Amino acid sequence: MKPRTDQNVHAIxxxxxxxxxxxxxxxxxxxxxxxxxxxxxxxxxxxxxRIISFVPPENIWIVTTEDLAQDLRFHIEALGSxxxxxxxxxxPFGRNTAPAIGLAAIYLNHLxxxxxxxxxxxxxxxxxxxxxxxxxxxxxxxxxxxYLVTFGIKPNRPETGYGYIKVDPSLKMELRGLYKVExxxxxxxxxxxxxxxxxxxxxxxxxxxxxxTSAILSEIAKHLPxxxxxxxxxxxxxxxxxxxxxxxxxxxxxxxxxxxRVKDYYSRLESISIDYGIMEQSRNTxxxxxxxxxSDLGSWSALDEIIEKDGAGNIFKGNTIDLESQNxxxxxxxxxxxxxxxxxxxxxxxxxxxxxxxxxxxxEVRKIVEKLKQTDREEHLLHKTVERPWxxxxxxxxxxxxxxxxxxxxxxxxxxxxxxxxxxEHWVVVAGIAKVTKENETYLVRTNxxxxxxxxxxxxxxxxxxxxxxxxxxxxxxxxxxxDIERFHDDYGRKDHRPRS
Amino acid sequence: MKPRTDQNVHAIxxxxxxxxxxxxxxxxxxxxxxxxxxxxxxxxxxxxxRIISFVPPENIWIVTTEDLAQDLRFHIEALGSxxxxxxxxxxPFGRNTAPAIGLAAIYLNHLxxxxxxxxxxxxxxxxxxxxxxxxxxxxxxxxxxxYLVTFGIKPNRPETGYGYIKVDPSLKMELRGLYKVExxxxxxxxxxxxxxxxxxxxxxxxxxxxxxTSAILSEIAKHLPxxxxxxxxxxxxxxxxxxxxxxxxxxxxxxxxxxxRVKDYYSRLESISIDYGIMEQSRNTxxxxxxxxxSDLGSWSALDEIIEKDGAGNIFKGNTIDLESQNxxxxxxxxxxxxxxxxxxxxxxxxxxxxxxxxxxxxEVRKIVEKLKQTDREEHLLHKTVERPWxxxxxxxxxxxxxxxxxxxxxxxxxxxxxxxxxxEHWVVVAGIAKVTKENETYLVRTNxxxxxxxxxxxxxxxxxxxxxxxxxxxxxxxxxxxDIERFHDDYGRKDHRPRS
Lengths: 501, 501
Fold this sequence. Notes:
By secondary structure, chain A is of the alpha/beta class. Chain A contains eleven helices and 26 strands. In chain A, helix 3 crosses helix 7 (225-238) and helix 7 packs antiparallel against helix 8.
C-alpha cells in the first residue's frame, strides 16, 4: 500500500441524497448511498473503503442532512472500529452541492488554511479503486497549485444525461494528464452529444473535485457572493474567535440558539450546484481524464454500464424465474418475480412495493415518489425492515389495533430502557435467549417461551448471548406508531422520539 | 322469474381446472374457477347463480377432481344453505372433458334414462345471465330431439385461439335459431381466421353443450368405443344391479376396493376433449348463435374483452400507482405496484409472487408454472392466505424453527379438536374473544391476552361471538407443516391429514 498523503488532505463525502432515483429499493430513510446495488458493499461504504488508504479516518468527512446523520453513523460503523474517527458535517436542509461544499470548506479551512479537499459523491460506482487513487494523487498535486481540479470521464456513447467538460489538448499542463478546461456544457441534445463524442476532447463531468479550501472559498466569493457572505456568518457562529463554540459528536452546534441561527441562514440559501455555480464560471479549472471506470448510477437503467449481464443482456438478482427476456433488469428479494419475454424493462421488487417500467422511462420514478409523498402513504419513506444499531426490525403486518414485528438483536446488543403509553407488547422468542427487564424485575425468556409487557411499564430487551436473538413482537393498542416511546437509557446515545426504538 | 324446467334437466359444471393460466392469482389449490377475476363473485359461484333459476340445486352437479372436491364444497357453501343440495362427481384423475362428461352421463343416466344435461365450464365469463337462460331454454328443446346442441359465439375479430363451428344457414331447423352444424374446425392461422370472420357463418366454439345423456352415451359408443366400454365397467361398479353400492356425501364409492377399481379404469383412459372426440365426429349436432356475451378467460389478456378499461385502455385493480401506461392490465392486492409507461403489458401481484409479461406472451405463464413444479417451491401450489370452512389463515412468515400465521374465525365457527406432535403454538388474540379448549380445561382469551398450547396437547380454537376473531399464532418446532395434525372432532366432517387445520 502506498503511503497516505499529508495530514492537510481531507476527503469530503457528499451523502445527502434523498433516495428517489432507485425507489423502491431506496427510501427517504434508506437512500441510494446506503444500498448495495453493485459490488460487495453499500455505495457509501465502498466510497469510504476507496479513499481510506489515502487519507486517515479523522480526515474523512461525511456531509449529510440532519435527518440522515445518525443513521449513517450506525451504517458506517459496520465497517469496523476505525470508522469512529470519521467526522460528520450536517446540512440543516438540502440546498444542493454548492452550499454543502461551502459548508465543508468552512470546517476544513478552520482546521487549516492549507487544507485540501477531495469532494466525492457517496453514490457513484468506481470498480477500480487503485486507478482511482492514482488519479487522485495527481489531482492533489494540481490542487496545490490553487487550481480547481476535476475528473473527466472519456465518453463511450453520445450520452444526453450528463454534463460535458471541454479541454484544449494544446493547453496540457506540465504535470502529466492535467488539462486546462475550456468550458463546461450542460446536458446536450443527441445531435450535440454525437458531435462531442466524435471531436474527442469532450469528457463527462464526474462530479468529483479536488481543491484547496482557500481556493474554493475564494471562487465562491467571486462567483456566488451571496453564498459566500452567508457562509462567513455561519463560520462566525460555528467557530467564534473566542472559542466559545461547542459541537456535538456529529459536529452540530450544541447551543440551540446558535444552531437555530445557522439553520435560519442556511434555509435562505439558493439551491445551486457546484457545477453550475462555480465550475462553469471559473477560469481556473483543470481536468484529469480519469483512468478508472465510473458510473454515477443516475437511474436503474445505469446498472447496464456497471453490472455484468447474461447472454441475453439481462441482469437478475434475488428470487426470479424468467422465460426469454432480453436486455432487462430484474431485481428481487425473497418474493418470486416471474417474467416472460420482457425487452428493455426494469422490474424492482421490495417487500411492500414493486416498480415496473421500460428502461427509457426509469428516471421518471422520481414522479412516482412525488405522487406518494402527496398521499398518506409510507412506501417512499421507510422499508419494512429497518436497520438499527442493535440489529433490525421488520414489520410483518399492521392491522386494526395490532402490529406484528420480527425483532433481531445482534450478539450482546440491547434496546433502550423504554416505555410505551399506548400499547402493550407480547414477545415470543423464536431463536436465542432474551434477557427481559420489566420494571424492577429481570428474567430470561428462552426459545419457545413468551412474555408480556403492559402499558406504562419500563422495559428493556437484551441479547445476553453470542448467537442472534429473534423475537416476534405482537403489539396491541389504538396507537401503534414508533413515536410512542420514552427512553430512560440508551447504549447508542439516542434521546429523541424519532422512528427508532 | 320464469319457471324452472322439468326435473329431468341437470346442469353439469366442469370444475376440474388446474389453475395454471391465471397464475400467480390461480394456484393448484385455488384454480381459476375459485377466483373473482370479473364480476361480483368467483367464476364458479357465478356459474351456479347463472343456472340456479333454471334447475333446482339437487340437479346441479359439480364435476371435479378428488383433490379439489372438498375445497369446492366449502367454497360454494358461501352462497347459502340451498347449496347443500348441489351434488359432486369426482374424477379420480384429470383426463380432459370427454371422460369427465361421460362419467357425469353415467350418474345422470342411472337416475333417469330421459335425463338431459347442460354442460357448463365453471370458469367462463357470461355477464348476461338472462340472455344465457333464454338460449339454454331453446337448446333444451333441441336436445330433446336427440341432437347434440352447442352454442356458437359470433366472432368480432379473427381470433386464432379458439376452435370454430361452421353452419350452413340454409340448414336452419324449424326451431328459431337452431342451425345444423357443417363442421368443427381447430384453431386456425390468422389468414384462415380472417376468412372465417368475413364469411359470416363461422362461430367460436363456446364449450357449452346440451344433450340427453342417452344421446351423448350413444355418440361415445360410436366415436370413442374404448371410452364407452370403460364407462360401462365403471357404471357396473358405481351402480350394480343389486343396489349394493354406497356413495359418500361427495358421491364417491365408500368401498375402497371398488373405488380403487374405478380409479384403475379411469387412470388408463385416453385424455381427450369432447370437442375433438365427439363434436368433430358426430353428424348429429346443432348450433345456436349465442345472444349472450361470453369469454372463456383463456389467459390474463382475455380480460380485455370483458372488463371495462380506462381512457388509456388500462385495467387497474388493487393498490396501484401509474404514470402514462397504455392498454395494460395491472392486478394488485395490498402491496403497491408502481408502473411507468407500460404498453400492452400484464402485471399481476400476489403476496408471494408477481408476474410481468407482455399481453401477447401471457399464455406462456403455463411454462412458468411447469418450471415451478420441477422445483421444491410452493408458489404454484398454495396462496399465503388459505380459505377454510371456519374462516381463513394467512402465513405471515416462515423462519428457521418458527412460523407465524394470522388466523381469522368466522362468527361462532371453530376449528377441529386436534393436537400436534411436533410443534407448540402461542396464540395472541388481536380482535374478538377466543374460547380455548386445552385438554380438559376450557377458558376465554380476550383481545390483548395470550395463551400457549404445548406439544401433544388436545386443543381447540373457537369463536363464541358474532364478531370475527383474529388470532396471531406463533408456531415453534423443528417440523411445521400442515400434515402434523391429529383430529378428534371436526364440525366439517374432515378426517384426513391434508393441508387444512
